Amino acid sequence: xxxxxxxxxxxxxxxxxxxxxxxxxxxxxxxxxxxxxxxxxxxxxxxxxxxxxxxxxxxxxxxxxxxxxxxxxxxxxxxxxxxxxxxxxxxxxxxxxxxxxxxxxxxxxxxxxxxxxxxxxxxxxxxxxxxxxxxxxxxxxxxxxxxxxxxxxxxxxxxxxxxxxxxxxxxxxxxxxxxxxxxxxxxxxxxxxxxxxxxxxxxxxxxxxxxxxxxxxxxxxxxxxxxxxxxxxxxxxxxxxxxxxxxxxxxxxxxxxxxxxxxxxxxxxxxxxxxxxxxxxxxxxxxxxxxxxxxxxxxxxxxxxxxxxxxxxxxxxxxxxxxxxxxxxxxxxxxxxxxxxxxxxxxxxxxxxxxxxxxxxxxxxxxxxxxxxxxxxxxxxxxxxxxxxxxxxxxxxxxxxxxxxxxxxxxxxxxxxxxxxxxxxxxxxxxxxxxxxxxxxxxxxxxxxxxxxxxxxxxxxxxxxxxxxxxxxxxxxxxxxxxxxxxxxxxxxxxxxxxxxxxxxxxxxxxxxxxxxxxxxxxxxxxxxxxxxxxxxxxxxxxxxxxxxxxxxxxxxxxxxxxxxxxxxxxxxxxxxxxxxxxxxxxxxxxxxxxxx
Length: 597
Description:
The protein is an alpha/beta fold. The chain has 24 helices and 10 strands.
């Protein structure tokens, strides 16, 4: 069944209502399956929904993309081998089995075609064997050849595999129109025609609007109901709205009938559209559909609501939390190592800068100059890792739309996705680089040559990297605009850097602002590194023929640092900040990153 109409007719909104998508505003009416109402949970098990825009992970192959959908959404009682077999069957049904090992690819890069991507999106929904498949503009952005291939695939699904297919489409070509079984024509949210495609042309001829010979019936109907056509015909605009609501009934080959009831839209409606709507409402085509709905409802009631619903209607258990986590972790890891530039760039930068720092700060001495070099080295390392963590903004931003679609379609829970994302996508980029840099520079620079101090040095670097990455991850969740997220992230890094303890002395800060430094993760890490390195260091300086020996702890106190503050409060602050930002990131993902229509 094709839902057609001019722009703004309400096609996508109507499809969202049929699929029971969460909508803003008030929604009323009934959706009947074989004449009876069912719960949302049961309904979700029956349907598949394909959005207008493809949201696929570019690093995965066609087979992997559909397989992950099968593993996450098919019943947990179904074996993995059966799910793989079902994936191959689905690829065969849609004619994309030959490209099973091809990667999806990014836009602008050589990959599978747009029509093939669209069929992959359809396959991700079809693999669960839905009784009803909804598609919003499945031919959008495709050339005529690929558009025909997609619609032919949908026609094959309906005829050969007993699927109910309902989709919106804008100005289809005549060879695509020939594949329609049923047609719903909308204009300004009202049903102008809903019935068999074979009766459509005769119906409009009988009410005084014949389609010219050789003219595409779809183009004719869209022109007939468009505002532009009405203006060209110099039609007057009525000042009143329709007093009664209209019913659009959707018959299909599976014996499933749906009814949508909508209130008249605000504003005015043309005389021609009023005439068309009234003519359809009083037609035999509409009466046949209304009679079919009433008969199905009566049949369902007479059977007590049993034995009339398509299988499966009972809700089944999908993949467990552990299975979801394992699948998502594997997908995240594949996405990481198949996009090596991001991972290698962090590792290479850490290696190159470690060698540079080893050369520049090598052999620090136990005097004032050496103390200054130590302070400069630690400040540089923290600034490096702090700002490099801003690359984590893209880790979630690139998958925001994919996550919202998969969440809406019931692939997994947000908690499972979040856990897998943190452990197998963020941590590899935030734990290994500081370890590489710290291990390389420690000895050449001449830092405290004890095992305990070395591992405490590495611990602080890793904790700092985890805190900054969790802060950036939170920002990427809150702000969907990448430009705003980059600006906010840079400001937060600069703000924390300002209160690290080197640029401004804590004792000279204005009254009531010392808490800012206590909350700065730059300050906690910077102070911990300095305390770990120079707490017991005696600085020896020869000036004007006099040998001066100054404890490093004294200089630390002059800069406003606490000589005993390593585990408490510095390391504790880093741990608490990491836990807090991980928690608020999860809450933000759970509460705010949802599909809204």
